Each structure stands twice: as C-alpha cells, then as structure tokens.
Amino acid sequence: MSNTTVKPEQGSKLSLRAGKLPKGATWMVAIGSIIVAIVLGMLMTGGFNIPLIALLAGVLNFIVLYAWSRTVEGKRKATDRVATTLVTSSFVIALIPLISLLWMTLVRGGPVILESPTVLSRTMEGMKGIYDQDYVAGEGELLGGFYHSIIGTVLITLAACIISIPIGVFTAIYLVEYAGRNTLGKAITFLVDVMTGIPSIVAGLFAFALFGTFLTLVDPGGIGSAKMGISAAVALSVLMVPIVVRNTEEILRLVPMDLREATYALGVPKWKTIVRIVLPTAISGILSGITIAIARVIGETAPIMVTAGFARNLNWDLFGGWMSTLPTFIYDSQMRPTSPGVAAAASSDRAWAAALVLIVLVMVLNLIARLLAKYLAPKGAR
Amino acid sequence: MKLTRFAPAAAVAAVGALTLSACGGGSATGESQENTGGEEQQQEELSGTLTGIGASSQKAAMDAWIADFGSVQPNVQVQYSPDGSGAGREQFLAGNAQFAGSDAALDEEELETAKDVCGPDGAFEYPVYISPIAVAFNLEGVDSVNMSPELIAKVFKGEVTTWNDQAIADENPDVELPDTPITPVHRSDESGTTENFVDYLSQAAGDVWDAEVSGDWPSDYGGEASQGTDGVVQTVSDTDGAIGYADASAVGELGTVAVGVGEEYVEYSPEAAAAVVDASEVAEGRGEGDLAFDLARDTTESGTYPIVLVSYHLVCSTYGDQNTVDMVKAWQNFVISEEGQQSAAESAGSAPISEDLRGQITEIIDMIQVAE
C-alpha cells in the first residue's frame, strides 16, 4: 500500500488497453486442437485411437490456449483461462463414463427390445438352452424374457419404500424439530452415519438371518423359506433408511426458522406447524432425497441374491417363494447363460435389454418425483 | 383442494400399475405351461416347491431340466440357485435345500453331518452331469492333432513352444505342422474347468505336471489368461497358434486335440466322456447309495475321453413327508431319464450318462423314503 514506486498509469494501461482474444477463442482453440489431434493421432498409430486423440487434444488445447492468451492478454488472464479449461475438462471427463454407459446400453439393449419386444412380457419359465441355440443360428425368435424381474424389482422396491420412507422421514423430523442437541439426537446421527457405510451384502445377510431366525422359531426347518421378496425389501430398507434420513434432515434444516416462529406466533401447535408448514415447504427436496435413495437401492444385486434367490417364474407374492429382480437377472444371464458357448449371446442380449429397462425405470421414477414435487410444492414456491 | 393436488400422482401410479399387470405372459414362449397331455404321463400329479442350491456348472443343464420337468409335473416348482458347489453342500447340510448340485462328492466330515439332516442313512449322491472339456487350438489348415498327456502338460507348461517341435511331430507323422509359436491360453478366474483339467494333467502326466491341483491356474506356468469360458474361446479364435481348454460345448469351429489314452488317441465325444465314468471305480468305504467316483483319468481303456467335469446331485435318504419324497423322486428320476439327459445334452452340451449308470442311480432313488 505504502509502496509508491508503482505508477498508477502503468496499472490502468495493463487492465484496460491490454489485448483481448477474439470472441469464441476458447472454442476455436478447442476445435482446432481436436482436428490437429486427430491428424497427429492417425499419423502416429495409423488408426483411429480415441483415447490417444482425446489426450492429445486436451494437452494441445492447454498449451495453445495458455500460450496465445499469455502473449496477447498477459499472465492473469492466461491463468484464468487455464483454470476455466481445467474445470470444463473435469466436467467432460466426469461425463464420459455416464455417456459411454448410456450409449452402450442403448446400442446393445435397444435393438433387442425393438426386435423382440416379447422379452418385456415373458418370463424364464420353461426356458432352455436349445431355444437360444436356435435363435443364435437364426432359426427362431428370442424366447424368454424378464417380465418377472420387472415385477420383482417394482414390488421389492415398493415394499422397501413403504418400510423405509416413514422411518427415515420421521427420524429426520425428530432430529431437526425435537432433538436439538440432546444426547439421543447425537446418538442417532452417529448411528445413521455408521449405517451409511454398511456394505450392501451385509445388509442382505442381516435380512436373511433375521427372517431365518424368526421362521426357525415357528418351524425348525423353515430357514429355507426365508428367501422371499419381503426379506429382500428389508435388506434394501437397511440401505435406504440412512440415505432418506440424511437427505431429509439436510432439507428440513433449510426451512427458515422465521416460518416456524410465524406460525407459533399465531398459536399453531408444533405438530401442525410441522405438518402444514415445514413439510410442504421442504416437500420437493424430501422427494428428490427419496428418489436418490430409491435409485441407489433399485440396482442392488448382492443383497437380492442372498435374500430372494434366482426365480425363473413370475411371483407376485412378497411373502412366499423366490423372486427375481432386474439386477439379479442381468447378473445371472451374463455370468451363467442359459446355453453356454456360442449361444450365450442370447442370454447376453436379454441382459442388455434388462439393463436398458432398469435405467429407464430409474429415469421414470425420477420424472415422477419431479412431477410430484412440482404439484405438491406450496403455491409461492412454484 | 387436497384431492386435486394428489390426483395426478394417483393417476400416474394407477396407470403404471395397470400397464405392468396388463402385459404379462407367464412363460418363456408366451404359451401357458399346461400339462401337454402326453400318453406317457401316467404319474400322479404332485404339487409343491423343490429348492436346490449348488454348482454353477450345472446351471444350463438345470435350466433345461426344469423347463422340461414343467411339462411332466406342471405343479411342481423347482428352483435352483447356482451359488457354487461349496455353498450348495453347506446349505444342503444345513437343511435349507432339498437337493444340491456339487462338482465334488461329500467328504467324510460332511457325510457325518448329513446323517443329522437326512436321517441315519445320510445323503445319497450320484453323478448326473458329465461335461467333456476339450483342448482346442487355432492353427491354419490343421483340424486335429494327437497329443499324449505328457505333451499337453509340456505345451501348457511352456516347455514346447512351436507347433513343429519334434515332440509334436513325433506323435503326428501325417500332419504338416507350421513353425507358428504356441500360445497357451488359460482361465484367469477360478473355475471347475481349470480344476478338472489340471487334475487330469497331474494324474495322467504326473512326471511333467508338478503344480498343485486347484481351481486357479498355477501362476508360474505363464501363458495367456482370459476371463471365463467365452474369453478363452475368443482368445484362441483370435490368435494363430493358440491352444486352450474349455467346455466342449463352447469350442465351436476350433480344432480339437485327440487325447492320448493308452495306445490310441481319442477325440472328445459324449459317448467317450460318459465311458470314462463307467471305467472309474466308486470310492470305497461309503454308504449304500453313494456313487462318488474316483475318476480314472489315467485310464488306458479304449474309447474313453478322460478330461471331463463330473457334477453330482445330492439328495437325502429320508424326507419329512410323503409329498416331498414323491416330488424328489419324480424330479430326480426325470433328471437321469433318457429324455432329461438328452435335453441337457442339447442345451448345455453335456454327455448323457450311460444306461448302466442310469440303472444304478434308479435303484438309489428308489431307496428314498419318508423319515420314521
């Protein structure tokens, strides 16, 4: 500050009259580097090597942009541009697996569903390898399907939601509205944190052991029948509850204290404040929290294998018999095809189609949650 | 007011539920799986559920058996969880399953445990699934090569490195062998196929093959590693001069090795694979109804193919009630029947068991009864 040797006019000259890169320079450099990278990559390997080209393009982009900006705009702007590019490329890198996954599933599963839409409405009951061999040899249609797995996924997830949403939301309400900083609240928060870290297979074993123990009390040989939809639902709710609690708690804490105080001032009891003011205000956040929790558990494979087995037939009964869900169906088809060897491609086709259906199912759930959030939100917040 | 807010959500849920329940068929073919009314179905109709846990090697055959059993006894539901042989034996001995599939017979300790679960006669076990393992190679212009067990061991050990090596040429005087280098391909994952193949090598070529027998490939011996049966077949198909081992049903168009047995060389075939089980001795010191074979992989008997994977079914000697006994009998009789074995052969590429073995197993199944 006290240093007077810096002449003010020099500073103003730097900031106002320094050169500027033309508008859209970032894009020009990016596209230019990609083209150069493609040419270079093809010269180096003689083929179209995407990872190498991407790496080359990224490095080129950095060097060219920094050098150009440094010479025209000066050091500060150049650093700024580099930081911007870093952030953007991180975003692109994070997108790569997502897009590649969606693309793969669409390309492998899409044609299967379009060509043999019956996979959506048939089960694996009565399915055997010889049908798959006919299909792969081009002599028959693709038989079998995963209707039973779609039903299983929906039923088990629904049951898991019915169990865990009330527990999760009420726990969160207790933590935010009632517990304050008391010991019980801290204990619950700690336990919820611990629960978040439970590996999913442990949840599955827990649910199986729980039902096994109870059923053995009723019938000594009954442990075998502990494999059923409801034990899978319990296993999933063990995984869901902590997520629902965490998300709901965060959202409820965001509801302004003023709103609560305003209702208290009008003489509204606490429970009514929570039901009519706090929850509606937070509803859209709570619903997205629940959707995240559902999306997290709907793709679980390990706990379902332990608790619900591998069913081949359609089973609507959550309380008796094995059930199949889409993830276990995919796993089973891919790892142990109906017909090993060349005709395993048929099982693989069904698995990809099931993967696509699972992704679409999660997207539809997300969409429903968005719509619900929109319609249930209080008028002012729309 | 409240109603209008919830109405769209309810409508969406209702439409979703209707769509889901409206479009469902019940079976793989879209036709209902009623009793097709064949003349031979004189058996009484049973109903109930049978649960099996065990070897994943049997999965494809099990799919075929369950599918076809559905037309014999439409009201008996058979479910099978391919958790692995070890898990299958464990769960079966804990009484969680009515039958188990296992790539290995019960050991002494397990036989004792079986008496607690299955009654004084313990468990019955017998082979139901015989799968030949082919040694397949990819060499332009050559469809079949003769190899003695010692030679196979040397090739997979990396001691014989080119196809025109003198050792190979000596056994194949009529085949013109190129000087392509040999690339041995093995499974990278733990598998029953590896275990049976390595067991064969150590029994039939013990002088050359000194590695321990396990489901993992001995890491000292090098070679190319591939994931799963399909991976091995793929790698062999893609590499000129490669040789690998895989379920015979999976090798497709690749050339296969005729394996040296005694004085002759045997190509794999279902009959030859089933024959090796008949040439083997039943393990001694086991109870009645226990057909655990000591596979004679070093047999010199003519017409046997010794590289096979044999998988067993384990059932109890007694069950709690008549219905379960009837269901287990019907199910197991179907599995070993000519029809059942043929169906598995078509779908899973296994080798049907011989008539002789079927006779022995039928006697064992007849001994299953209600616990006193």
From TrEMBL, chain A:
Q: Where is each ABC transmembrane type-1 domain found?
A: 150-369
Q: Which residues cross the membrane?
A: 25-44, 50-69, 81-104, 150-176, 188-211, 223-245, 277-298, 351-373
Q: Which organism is it from?
A: Brevibacterium daeguense
Q: Any idea what job this protein has?
A: Part of the binding-protein-dependent transport system for phosphate; probably responsible for the translocation of the substrate across the membrane.
The identity of this protein, by name, is: Phosphate transport system permease protein PstA
Q: Which Pfam families match?
A: BPD_transp_1 (PF00528)
Compartments it resides in = Cell membrane
State where it is primarily located: membrane
Q: How does it sit in the membrane?
A: Multi-pass membrane protein
Automatic annotation (TrEMBL), chain B:
Instruction: Give the start-end ranges of region Disordered.
Output: 25-47, 171-192
The answer on whether this UniProt entry bears the keyword Signal reads yes
- Renumbered to this chain, the signal peptide range is 1-24
What is the name of the protein in this document? Phosphate-binding protein
Say if the entry is tagged with keyword Signal: yes
Family (UniProt): Belongs to the PstS family.
InterPro entries per the record? Answer: ABC_phos-bd_PstS, PBP_domain, Phosphate-bind_PstS
**Gene name tied to this protein:** pstS
What keywords sit in the KW lines? Phosphate transport, Signal, Transport
PBP domain mapped to chain residues: 41-339
Q: So which domain of life are we looking at?
A: Bacteria
Residue ranges under compositional bias (Low complexity)?
29-47
